[in-house]
Specification:
2 domains, about 230 residues, about 5% strand, Helix Hairpins, rod-shaped, mainly alpha, 5 helices
């Protein structure tokens, strides 16, 4: 195997390693908390607070209704018992009963509105909670897939690393050092030649360069300086 073919094979492995590392970084960047889950959790907590407040108001209204109902019952019992004979006292009792009744009716109307709010909040909490559970399940499934992909990429990179070391061991050290310096400066050190054209810079090559490269010699493109490889 010619040195240029060895270097070309090494470059293919190096490019695979670079691609694998980029893919690994991209996968790693997707691991972690889900913004959608976080935002939905916040919505759920906010709606739960609203529900708690509405429920507290409902209990407060019901307690007040019970208190008014007790006072109304006492006042009505006094009014209709026949024990009170004084017209002025009867009139005052009548006004008191009417005031209690008006207050009771007002509180019952408010309680109905609060109950409606409670039911709406309960439905909203259930809806958001269902959405949150779906998002969590999707996120956990995605995280499992990403973790599996990371393991696959790491295993592939380990295999490529071993393959790279074997290839390096077969290459003449000066040629390898030269390849390394070109890779640092140009990214692509070895350019394939197709139909007499350097695929690194897409320039037609002189016949002498083609002949030398075809003979297996380490020849650089006179235009871009890359090592020429004829398959």
């Amino acid at each position: 195997m010619t040195v240029t073919k060895q270097l070309y094979r090494l470059q293919e492995v190096d490019l695979e390693i670079e691609s694998g590392k980029r893919a690994l970084e991209q996968v790693a960047s997707q691991l972690g908390e889900s913004q959608a889950v976080i935002e939905t959790q916040k919505q759920l907590e906010l709606e739960q607070k609203r529900l708690e407040e509405s429920s507290r108001r409902q209990r407060s209204a019901e307690w007040e209704i019970d208190d008014i109902a007790t006072k109304l019952a006492v006042a009505e019992e006094q009014l209709f018992s026949g024990r009170v004979k004084n017209p002025k006292e009867l009139t005052n009792l009548q006004h008191e009963v009417e005031a209690f009744q008006a207050r009771r009716d007002q509180l019952e109307e408010q309680a109905l509105e609060i109950i409606d709010q409670v039911e709406q909040s309960e439905a909203r909490v259930a809806e958001i909670n269902s959405e949150l559970e779906t998002l969590k399940a999707d996120w956990q499934r995605q995280q499992k897939q990403l973790t599996d992909e990371m393991e696959r990429l790491r295993a592939a990179l380990a295999d490529l690393g071993s393959k790279r070391q074997l290839l390096i061991g077969e290459i003449d050290p000066p040629a390898f050092e030269f390849y390394q310096s070109l890779r640092k400066g140009k990214g692509i050190a070895v350019a394939k030649v197709e139909q007499g054209i350097c695929r690194g810079c897409r320039i037609s090559l002189p016949t002498t360069d083609l002949q030398q490269a075809r003979g297996g010699k380490l020849v650089q493109c006179s235009s871009c300086g890359r090592i020429l490889f004829l398959p």
